[in-house]
Structure formats: structure tokens, C-alpha cells
Design brief:
Elements (H helix, E strand, L loop, with lengths): L19 H19 L4 H5 L1 H10 L6 E4 L6 H6 L37 H14 L6 E6 L6 H10 L6 E7 L9 H12 L1 H16 L3 H19 L3 H6 L2 E7 L3 H12 L4 E7 L7 H5 L26 H15 L3 E5 L9 H6 L4 E3 L4 H13 L3 E7 H4 L3 H9 L6 E5 L16 H6 L5 E3 L4 H11 L6 E4 L22 E4 L4 E5 L3 H14 L4 E5 L2 E3 L3 H10 L2 E9 L4 H12 L4 E7 L9 H8 L3 H13 L3
Length: 621
């Protein structure tokens, strides 16, 4: 096998060009086999095989720098840099990350995980290179989806000022190549990047700039060129911004990409290389269902079907059902997502009420301010975004929603530990960053029925409200406890004595098991479902403090700024000596791995919590 000869960075350059397509086929077979067992981002990686090969043939890593936007399409890059064995532990605790990680390899020059960051990072690496007298090549790879993010255009605006080489590869996998750009585009690309042309152009421009009013002459020439290029050259948006555009080029033709990359390397400014690829290429199920294979669970290679299909509803399913019902009851209910109608569960709402559904692309900041405008216009917007992505819109939540006290509902999916995607995707900060905003109200349901009740409650209140819920199976326990949701009111589930657990959201299920373990050790234990992280129920905390020796706050959020700190503040105000144990995620980034394993590692599993409480009680008895 050709792949057997790839043991480290640069080994691909020993492969004969005639064998490139065979190597690409082997890489695809390898990725399909491994990801079918571990799960992971399959479609994006299958589409970027030849592109990655071309970049590795063109660049000299790690001296040259390659930044992958988002980074979930970097599996072939990892394979070509000697990390083949790591695929056995892909996305597992202690194993290889599914994203670029500087600590893994010198060939990963920048950690990524969220979209639209690669051009900014690449521009920083270019400036660092130039200021230190370097001559290495810097390439940023960004997808057409990530290019919908505003940060990418902020970076392009600044990249246009460069007078040094910087290559941006636009990986466009929308499966279409415009027919009107063929021969003329290729001809102009060749002319504009030929050495003689570049040397003459630079000499003429520099000479003109030195004479009186020469700048105006240069500008007139540029305008005249632009008028013609608008007729025949694609990518004029980038050209008008000051970024040279080359392409489109077939992203599955390695020789064509190498030719264009060589052309791009001769341009002493920022240059956009537009590459057309097919998401999921080489695996028919992924080609037909690219959304399903974006982030795939383990699957059967023959059929493409999950090997362990879900048999119970998860919280996203519950949210999806509730939203369709709420949409039927009130025509003012509208839904917004940032490029994730499937992931957030809004696909059904979109199908039923297309005129009231808005997918704004990967643009969380715009999504929130757009929702604020909808609310100001008299509608009831629900913004469904993953916890780790919503943090990108902190300013918009504060400035555009909460200062105006607009009734925007934030449906925060993937709150808490999410597992295999690691540090960049764990939803463990939302309680902290949202709680700091005056006027924000934050709820977390204990089970699937409470999620439904909280969504209905949120849409009947004229204030900003966030409902956070975890990834995974929706808890169906405690069905008999369904007190009406009231603003800022907790729910008492069990009243006993000695110890009182104040659990928020997903931790109520864990608290039930903790209570069982404490009973086995001879302790009485009350349980309060906190429901609200903000406003906190002061009366519930006071009752717990006056009737128990030990209070235990439980949350799936980092300790700093979380629910437990607010319980501490209430106790300090009451000036009671009741002890408090704060169960939360340590103030650190949590790597990838199975959620249950991660909970145990950081001490928020039931057994770990019970053990900590028992040790505390020994000192109080």
C-alpha cells in the first residue's frame, strides 16, 4: 500500500505523481474504516483529501504554516504528518483530537475549533514572519460555510493591505462550478501571475508612484482593469477588497491545484485560491447525506447506517417537538439558527413554517442582533445555538438584547460537557458569561417535560430568557414532580434533613443517585431542583441553610461565575454558618473524551460527589 510509506511529514513528496489518485483512494478507505468505528467528521474530510495532498506537496511543513479553519477537516493532514496510529484513539480521552492541536504536532501551527478564524490567525502569522525577516509560506484554508462569518471579512479587509505573500484557500464544497469562467479565467490567471508580468507591473507602479500625481494614474489603471475583470473574472468581491482571486480550480485534481498554488506563491499580496470540492466524496452515503455525515456516530460501512441507532429521544428532539407546537399556537413565534437547522432540531419548524424560520449562516453575532430586531418589531424570536458557539455573541446579547430588555429566547443546546469534540466545544461557560449580564434570566430543566414547560414559560415573558439543556438522552425520571414554572422559583423534590442538594439542570439526575449513595451511608438528604441560575431562589437557599448542616450546589459549568458562587453569595448575605460544598467543573479547559469518563475525571460523577460529601460530613458530625 502507498499509505504504508507515509510515516512522517514530507513523505508524500516521495510518491510518484502517477500514484496520487491511488493514494487518495487509500486515504479515503482508511478514513471511512476508522471513522466508522470511532465516529467523527467524515464528510468534510473525504471532500478535502486531494486538497490536503496538494498542500502537503506544495508546502514544506513545519517551516511553512498551514491553518485549518474550524479544523474538523484536518484528518488527512494528521495522516500525512505521521499520526496514523493516533486514529485508533481519535476523539477518545487521552487520544488524538479531532481538531488541529499544537501540542500534538509542530505541523499544527494554530489550534482551531470554531469557524471563521483562520484568516485572522494566518494574517498574524504573516506579520510575525515579516517582522522577524522570515520567508516561509503561510496558507489558511477556509470553507464556504465559514466564509459567512463576519470575522472572516474583518480579516480580509486587513489582509488587503498586505504587500507580501499570503495564500487563502477557499474550500468551496457546494458542488457547482460556473461554466462561464473556464478558458478566459484560466488565461487571465496565467497572465496575471507570470513572472514577467508581475515584474513589469511592479516596476511600472513603483515608477508612477514616484512622479507627481502618479498615485492617481495608478488608481486610474486599476479602475480600468477592474471594469474589464468584472465582466469575465469570478471572485470580484475579493478583488474589490484588494485580495487577488485565482480560480475556480477542481479541488480533486492535484496537478491543477499545484499549478495554481505555485502561481499564488509569486504574488506579493493576499491571494484567494478558490477550490471546488465535493463533500463526502468517495463514500456514497456521505455524498447523498452530507449533513448526516458532518459529525457521524459509528456506522456500518456497507449501509452507512449507525451501528447503535438511538432508541430514545434526546433533548434536541424534545426541543424540536416543542417548537413546532409553539409555532402552531402563536404565529409570532419565529426561529433563528446559525447554519445548524439539523443540529439544533429546527428542521421540522423550518419545514412547517418556512416563512418564520431564518438560517443566517455561521454568524452568531448577526443571529442575536437580528433576533433583537425581530423582538423590537413585535415578534417572539427563539435563537437556537450550541453553548460553545453562543459565547461568540456575548456583546450582542448584552448590548442589543439585554440593555433593551427585549424578549428574545435563547435555546442553548449542548450545555455542559459534550465529549468527543473537546475543549473548543464543551458548553461549560454559558452560566458564567450569561449570569454576568443584568436583565438576563437563565433556566435549566431537570428532565424532558421540564424543558417543554420552560420553553412555554419563556415565550410568555417579556424579558430575555435562556434555557440551557445538555447533549444526549433526555431524562425521563421525576415525571411526577412537575410544579408550574415561576420566575426565579426552585422546586423542592425531597425534604429530609442533614444534607441538602441544590442541583441545576442535568445535575438533578446525578443528584438522585448521590442521594441514594448517601442513604446507603446513613445520611438524610433533601433535594432541590434549582431551575433558575438567575434569578436565584433566595428563599429556597435560606430554607436549606436553616434546616440542614451542609448545602451542596451542583452544576455542569465551571466554578467561576457559576450557580454555586451565587448560592455562596446568598449564604454570605444571610450570615449563616451553614457549610457549602460547590460541585462544579474546575476552572480549566476539558479535553475530548466520553462524557461519563470526563465526569469521573473532574469529580462531578455521582460516586465522586457522594465521597466528597461524606468526607465533609465527617468533620461536621
Amino acid at each position: 500500500m502507498l499509505l504504508d510509506s507515509i510515516k512522517g511529514v514530507g513523505d508524500i513528496k516521495n510518491i510518484e505523481p502517477a500514484d496520487y489518485q491511488d493514494l487518495a483512494k487509500e486515504i479515503r478507505e482508511f478514513l471511512i474504516d476508522k471513522i466508522s468505528r470511532t465516529g467523527g467528521h467524515l464528510g468534510s474530510n473525504l471532500g478535502a483529501v486531494e486538497l490536503t495532498m496538494a498542500l502537503h506537496l506544495f508546502l514544506n511543513l513545519p517551516e511553512d504554516k498551514l491553518i485549518w479553519d474550524v479544523g474538523h477537516q484536518s484528518y488527512t493532514h494528521k495522516l500525512l504528518t505521521g499520526r496514523r496510529d493516533g486514529f485508533e484513539t481519535l476523539r477518545k480521552f487521552g487520544g488524538m483530537s479531532g481538531f488541529p492541536k499544537r501540542k500534538e504536532s509542530d505541523c499544527d501551527c494554530f489550534d482551531t475549533g470554531h469557524s471563521s478564524t483562520s484568516i485572522s490567525a494566518g494574517l498574524g502569522l504573516v506579520k510575525a514572519r515579516d517582522l522577524q525577516g522570515g520567508n516561509n509560506t503561510v496558507v489558511s484554508v477556509i470553507g464556504d460555510g465559514a466564509l459567512t462569518g463576519g470575522m472572516a471579512y474583518e480579516a480580509l479587509n486587513n489582509a488587503a493591505k498586505l504587500e507580501t505573500n499570503y495564500i487563502i484557500v477557499l474550500n468551496d464544497n457546494n458542488m457547482s462550478i460556473s461554466e462561464n469562467v473556464g478558458g478566459v479565467s484560466k488565461y487571465l490567471n496565467n497572465v496575471r501571475t507570470a513572472n514577467a508580468y508581475l515584474d513589469i507591473k511592479e516596476g511600472v507602479y513603483n515608477t508612477l508612484k514616484e512622479i507627481p500625481k502618479g498615485e492617481k494614474v495608478v488608481e486610474s489603471i486599476r479602475k480600468a482593469k477592474s471594469s474589464f475583470k468584472h465582466l469575465v473574472v469570478p471572485g470580484m468581491l475579493f478583488e474589490d477588497m484588494g485580495v487577488t482571486y485565482l480560480g475556480p480550480v477542481d479541488g480533486h485534481n492535484i496537478s491543477e491545484m499545484l499549478h495554481v498554488l505555485q502561481e499564488a506563491s509569486r504574488i506579493r499580496k493576499a491571494v484567494m485560491v478558490h477550490v471546488i470540492t465535493q463533500k463526502g466524496k468517495g463514500f456514497l452515503p456521505a455524498e447523498r447525506h452530507p449533513a448526516r455525515f458532518h459529525g457521524a456516530d459509528p456506522f456500518d460501512v456497507e449501509t452507512g447506517l449507525p451501528t447503535k441507532p438511538r432508541t430514545t429521544a434526546n433533548y434536541t428532539d424534545v426541543f424540536s417537538t416543542v417548537m413546532t407546537k409553539l409555532g402552531a399556537r402563536d404565529e409570532k413565534v419565529v426561529a433563528i439558527t446559525a447554519a445548524m437547522p439539523d443540529g439544533t432540531g429546527l428542521k421540522r419548524f423550518r419545514n412547517m413554517y418556512p416563512e418564520r424560520f431564518f438560517d443566517v449562516g455561521i454568524a452568531e453575532e448577526h443571529a442575536v442582533t437580528f433576533a433583537a430586531g425581530l423582538a423590537a418589531g413585535g415578534l417572539r424570536p427563539v435563537v437556537a445555538i450550541y453553548s460553545s458557539f453562543l459565547q461568540r455573541a456575548y456583546d450582542q446579547i448584552l448590548h442589543d438584547v439585554c440593555i433593551q430588555n427585549l424578549p428574545v429566547v435563547f435555546a442553548i443546546d449542548r450545555a455542559g460537557l459534550v465529549g468527543s469534540d473537546g475543549e473548543t466545544h464543551q458548553g461549560i461557560f454559558d452560566l458564567s458569561y450569561l449570569s454576568s449580564i443584568p436583565g438576563m434570566h437563565i433556566m435549566a430543566p431537570k428532565n424532558k417535560w421540564e424543558l417543554s414547560d420552560m420553553m412555554k414559560f419563556a415565550l410568555t415573558n417579556e424579558v430575555p430568557i435562556a434555557v440551557r439543556y445538555p447533549r444526549g438522552e433526555a431524562y425521563s425520571g421525576l415525571k411526577e414532580y412537575r410544579a408550574p414554572v415561576e420566575m426565579g422559583k426552585a422546586e423542592l423534590i425531597y425534604a429530609e434533613g442533614e444534607i441538602c442538594l441544590l442541583a441545576l439542570g442535568s445535575m438533578v439526575k446525578t443528584a438522585e443517585r448521590v442521594r441514594e449513595l448517601l442513604h446507603e451511608s446513613g445520611y438524610k438528604c433533601s433535594l432541590i431542583n434549582a431551575r433558575f441560575a438567575k434569578p436565584i431562589d433566595d428563599h429556597a437557599v435560606k430554607w436549606a441553610a436553616e434546616n440542614h448542616k451542609l448545602l451542596v450546589s451542583m452544576e455542569e459549568n465551571v466554578l467561576s461565575g457559576g450557580y454555586g458562587e451565587k448560592v455562596r453569595q446568598v449564604l454570605d448575605g444571610l450570615k449563616l454558618k451553614t457549610s457549602l460544598v460547590q460541585i462544579a467543573i474546575p476552572d480549566e479547559y476539558v479535553e475530548h473524551g466520553n462524557v461519563e469518563l470526563l465526569q469521573k475525571e473532574i469529580g462531578i460523577d455521582a460516586e465522586g460527589i457522594a465521597g466528597r460529601i461524606i468526607e465533609e460530613m465527617k468533620g461536621l458530625r
